[in-house]
Every structure is written in C-alpha cells, then in structure tokens.
Amino acid sequence: MHRGLTNIYRTMSSTSAASFSSFSSSSFSTVRSPVLNHLLAAVERLTPLQLAGSWDNVGVMIEAPYPRQEIKGKKQVLTCIDLTTAVTEEALASSSTAAVLTYHPPIFSGLKSMTLAVPLQASLLRLSTHGIPVVCIHTASDSSIGGVNDHIASAFTLDLRATSKAIEESKEQPEGHEGCGLGRLVTLDHALNKHEVVKRIKHTLNLDHAQAAWAPNGAEKIKTIAICAGSGSSVLSGVKADLYLSGELDHHATLLCNAKGIHVILTNHSASERPWLKPFAPRLAKAMNEEAGGDAYEVLISMADIEPLRVV
C-alpha cells in the first residue's frame, strides 16, 4: 500500500475507533435499564413467571442495548396479546413507548438466526433498535390469581354465589397467588339457563358472537363450568362439568364432549384472552409506579392488537 494512503488509513481508523469507543462507553451498558427492571418486578408480583408451563417461553424476549433516554413525562408500556407488525408500528409511533408487554411469545422455539424476512423477528429487531425491550407473560398470566382465567370466571363469580378453583393447581404457589393454576372450574350455587350463561360470557368478553355446541343429552341448566383461555383441549380433557368454555377446541374434541353430555362454548382463541388486558393494565401501572417510587409510568392497551377472525 502507498505510504500516504497508509497514513490516511491509520488516521481514519484511529478516529473511527475513538468515536466508537466514546459512543459505546457513554451509551451502552450490559446492566438492565430501570424501565425493564421495574416492568419485570411488577410482572413477578402480578403474573409470576415461575407459573408458566415448562414448555412455554416467557420473560424477556429481547432487550434494547441503547434504551430510550429522550422520553419526557411518563414512560409508556404498551400491552398486547400478539406482537403483530401493526402493534410494532403503533409502539414505534409514540416517542414515549419505553417497553412492550405481550401475552403470546414472539419467540417460541429455538432460533438459528433472526432476520428481517420473518415478521415477528423483524418486529423484535426494530423495537430493540429503537430502544424498546419486549417482555412476554403468556401462561404465567393464565395461572396467576387475577389472571386471564379468573377474568373469564368473573362472568359468574362477580355477582353470583359461586366458587372457582384451578383445574390443575401449580406446584409453585407464590405469595399472593395461593390456589393458582391452569384453568378454572366454576361451581354455581344456583344453576343458570343456557341463555343467561351465553349472555354473561358475551358481556364479560365483549363479544358480539360466540359458538355453541349444545349436547343433545346435556344438562338443561348449567351449574358447573370448566374454563380455559386460548386453546383448552389439553387442560379441559376429562374434567367433569356441564359446560366447557374456551377460546378454541378441536373439532373431534368438541364432538366427544357433546357425546359425553358436555356443552361447549368457544369464543375464538385470542378473543378469550384480550379482554383481560383492560383490568390488568391499571394494575400493572400501579405496580410499576410502586417499584419506581413515583408516578413514572402509564400502561396502554394496544389499539392495533385485534381479533384476527371476523364473522362475514
């Protein structure tokens, strides 16, 4: 290489290295940001991650190496059921978004790479690049006290004399979550007719429609209701109840239930989960602000996160 070019190259390399070193040392840290620490601490109080299924993937999905520093006023946490491209755009559109909390895990199985060609991976990469970490709570929020299944059960327990217990109690019973576990079995003191049951479900889950498979030899009035948010095939299998209530159940499982005299009501998968965000959001904001020691956060429910299936 020509001596003059060599000197120029050395000067450029030295300058670039110094600039990068200065940028890195002033901006980058391997220590988690206060926002992420406050969010995780609040999550552990409300939906302890140890309650998630062993097969599940919960917790931090991706961190932001350069967290947002320019946020003025309250920092926002955006909650959603599914981290779609539309939700990602919504999060990025606000300069106050400090974190995203999603229900379904955007990373579920092992990855060999993360690329922009895969929509979910692209969402994670874009959010991280803009200083926004992503946390997932999935089945931890199903099993927790005050979680998704409890919200569905409130259709019957809020103003009626009834008991509700977990179908599968968790081995772990964190403080404040005694009796937690998968699913809920609601037993009413006084049985309800089918019309009243449907009315209550649609009101609690804010539904215009639900699907019902009434068993020809099922109970005329319903006293026991087995509940599982999302997909209920495994959790509800073998449970003795007048009615199974879930987001989805496979075709043959539904037929088998009816053959056994069990009624089935299905809402669509995420339609059984999304309404829980409404009571959860203020609880999360309160817990995060307690962790922060001040009024630092507000928690929003994504407007772009919607039920993908429509009746047409």
TrEMBL record:
<feature type="binding site">
    <location>
        <position position="142"/>
    </location>
    <ligand>
        <name>a divalent metal cation</name>
    </ligand>
</feature>
<dbReference type="Pfam" id="PF01784">
    <property type="entry name" value="DUF34_NIF3"/>
</dbReference>
<dbReference type="InterPro" id="IPR002678">
    <property type="entry name" value="DUF34/NIF3"/>
</dbReference>
<feature type="binding site">
    <location>
        <position position="104"/>
    </location>
    <ligand>
        <name>a divalent metal cation</name>
    </ligand>
</feature>
<comment type="similarity">
    <text>Belongs to the GTP cyclohydrolase I type 2/NIF3 family.</text>
</comment>
<keyword id="KW-0479">Metal-binding</keyword>
<dbReference type="GO" id="GO:0005739">
    <property type="term" value="C:mitochondrion"/>
</dbReference>
<protein>
    <recommendedName>
        <fullName>YbgI/family dinuclear metal center protein</fullName>
    </recommendedName>
</protein>
<feature type="binding site">
    <location>
        <position position="269"/>
    </location>
    <ligand>
        <name>a divalent metal cation</name>
    </ligand>
</feature>
<feature type="binding site">
    <location>
        <position position="273"/>
    </location>
    <ligand>
        <name>a divalent metal cation</name>
    </ligand>
</feature>
<dbReference type="InterPro" id="IPR036069">
    <property type="entry name" value="DUF34/NIF3_sf"/>
</dbReference>
<dbReference type="GO" id="GO:0046872">
    <property type="term" value="F:metal ion binding"/>
</dbReference>
